[in-house]
Amino acid sequence: MCIPGKIRKKAGRFVLRKKQKRLRRKRKVCNFKYAKSAGIIFHCDNSQMFEAVHNFVKQCTDQGKEVYAIGYVPEKKVPDNYLLRKSLRFFSLEDLNWYKKPTPSFVEDFINTQFDLLIDLSMSYSFPVEYIRALSIARFKTGKQFEENDHLDMSIVIKENRDIDYLVQHIVHYLNIIKTN
């Protein structure tokens, strides 16, 4: 990583830590079956990820959950075929500020929505997704464990060579066996 990249990364982490200190959220363990709303975030770097997330959003919607899904596309522009699905919103490299904070207003709305569940379906790490995950006021956060600060209430550890379908299956499994009061 070049010097300007390191400076951007440090600045982004500094701003994120500062905002996290002021963050107040009501944590509450939530079973998947009883969740009424879910926020889904993901790092969308291929069409397999796109289709898997779209299918999961459809599955959640069919179960009567209110779902809001946003994806980060690490390209200059969001591919046109991604924009055809009304249930998913996307942002790309051009929607990031200089330290990689997502700037679209729908991202801020997502962060400030108190979902019963926040589900991060990212298979690879990215700061823009971490930023959203860390600052979200969702009651219960889950997703794949990353070495970076994951800011999750429940992390799913995945060994190498696993795909998005494996992650979705395990998230749903563990969220369904959680007992809540």
Fold blueprint:
Blueprint: H1 3-22, E1 37-43, H2 47-62, E2 66-73, E3 88-92, H3 105-111, E4 117-120, H4 127-135, E5 140-144, E6 154-156, H5 164-177
Parallel strand pairs: 1-2, 1-4, 2-3, 4-5, 5-6
Helix pairs in contact: 1-4
Give an account of the 3D structure.
The chain has a single domain (3-177), classed as Rossmann fold, CATH 3.40.50. It is 36% helix and 18% strand. The protein has helices at 3-22, 47-62, 105-111, 127-135, 164-177; strands spanning 37-43, 66-73, 88-92, 117-120, 140-144, 154-156. By secondary structure, it is α/β, with parallel strands linked by helices. α1 runs parallel beside α4 (127-135). The model has no long low-confidence stretch (mean pLDDT 90). The protein starts with a helix and ends with a helix. The chain has five helices and six strands; from the N terminus they run αβαββαβαββα. Strands 3-2-1-4-5-6 form a six-stranded parallel β-sheet, with helices on both faces.
Write a brief caption for the model.
The chain contains 5 helices and 6 strands; from the N terminus they run αβαββαβαββα.
Strand residue percentage? 15-25%
**Tally of helical segments:** 5
The CATH first-level class comes to: Alpha Beta
Helix content range: 25-40%
The CATH architecture category equals 3-Layer(aba) Sandwich
Give the total of beta strands.
6
Q: Give the helices and strands as they follow along the chain.
A: HEHEEHEHEEH
Distance between the termini: 47 Å
What is the CATH topology descriptor?
Answer: Rossmann fold
Radius of gyration: 16 Å
Approximate shape:
globular
* Main sheet: strand order: 3-2-1-4-5-6
Helical/strand content category: alpha/beta
Overall number of structural domains: 1
Overall mean confidence score, pLDDT: 90
